[in-house]
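Provenance and format

Records in this collection were gathered into a single text stream. Each protein contributes a sequence line and a token line. The two records reproduced below are adjacent in the stream.
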Amino acid sequence: MDHGLAYFGQMTASLSHEMKNYLAIINENAGLMEDLAMMVSMGKELEPERILGVCRNIAAQVKRADETIKAMNAFGHSTDRPMARIGLYDTMNLTMNLAMRLLRSRSVQVQCQASEELQITTQPFFFMNLLWLIVDYIAETAVEDSQILLSALRQDTFVSIAVSCSGQDADNTVGSLLAMDSVVLLLGSLRGSLNVPAHGKQRNERYHSHIRS
């Protein structure tokens, strides 16, 4: 699917930008360490804390880079099998962590919640793709400093993910999403639905996916 390639490219580009930022900061601190070493070679005294501070900065960036690579690895493995059993909470968090740079650029925060450790059998990559398309659209139209809430709930024979954002009109949002070919194709592939709950005054958008044993 073309939209799947577009999603893969968007996430890969965003993550590579993150990695470049980490490397740039590490390189800057390495240059500072070189300057400090030259000062010592010239007989100047340095406080150990100054050197330790540079080392801590490098270690912090290495940790962030390691977390990004782990997310990239999990993202890559989402295509290993056409169908797989996934935990919704972990998958929602991974999807949002992959797009953290894009969300930051829009001054939007996303919080994930689950009433329990819910699992479904689905197509992981396309599930993440659909979830991101929904959040991406809401983030694009949200006011600055908005918070988007993703809540996974069990409802009878299926699991529902409620997506809500203050100030958003649910009917207009769902209508716009269902006008997107990529969303419609993914919903069909995942056997899901997107609608406004009966108690629509709460302004929720929900994606429903059946649980398979």
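Adjacent record:
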Amino acid sequence: MADEPKVLTTVGVATFLDVGNPPTDLLRVQPGIPIDDAYEQVSVLLSYIKHLVREGDMEDDHKLLAAADYLSLLAKALMDDIEIAKNRQR
């Protein structure tokens, strides 16, 4: 019987949204999320970011651009956490 491949999951170390002085991380990626699910969410986030940037630029709407900035921080944290998990597997 072949061993089932272990599902790679997020490690929960990547943080985002620094607040305060000195800066403190407000949010962290949740550990234990399957990598495939995390990649799917990054893809969804990137499509929203693209839309918000395009609309914010066309409408000169700084709130849309700020929302895109927050979502990009979240997407980056997810990608960072995925890469950390992959590197730990090696």
